[in-house]
Design goal:
This protein is mostly helical and 118 residues long. The chain contains six helices and two strands; from the N terminus they run H-H-H-H-E-E-H-H. The chain has a two-stranded antiparallel ribbon with strand order 1-2. It is globular, with a radius of gyration of 13 Å. It starts with 10 loop residues before the first helix and ends in a 5-residue tail after the last helix.
Length: 118
């Protein structure tokens, strides 16, 4: 299996794109951080440290304090792929985060973005 380039990209290089995406659509960095923190268990200080340390995406997820147990409830299409069907665990985690960021940018209600079991 080929290694995806995104695994070696730094979180510091991707995070500003997430910020731009949500702010361009009239939403806040705080909303973005809320969904990233929900997914990974990082708090704001820890997010800042991963940016300063230039952690790769692989390191970012490997060192996540606590991946949310409800993350598998994230479904839908991102980059032409159904996130629930992605087999590579790291790629699936990255796409979960992409999906959450997209939902913030689209203005979906936070209580719907932060999935809870039915």
């Amino acid at each position: 299996m080929t290694r995806h380039k995104i695994f070696d990209m730094t979180f510091a290089s991707i995070y500003p794109m997430y910020v731009n995406k949500v702010e361009r659509k009239g939403h806040s960095r705080a909303e973005l951080n809320e969904v990233v923190e929900w997914l990974t268990g990082y708090d704001e200080d820890a997010l800042d440290r991963t940016i300063e340390d230039e952690s790769t995406m692989e390191e970012f997820f490997a060192q996540a304090p606590a991946m949310n147990p409800n993350a598998p409830l994230i479904t839908g299409v991102i980059c032409g792929h159904r996130v629930e069907d992605i087999e590579d665990p790291l790629m699936q985690q990255i796409r979960w985060m992409d999906k959450l960021v997209d939902e913030v940018a689209r203005g979906k209600k936070m209580e719907n973005i932060l999935r809870t079991p039915a």
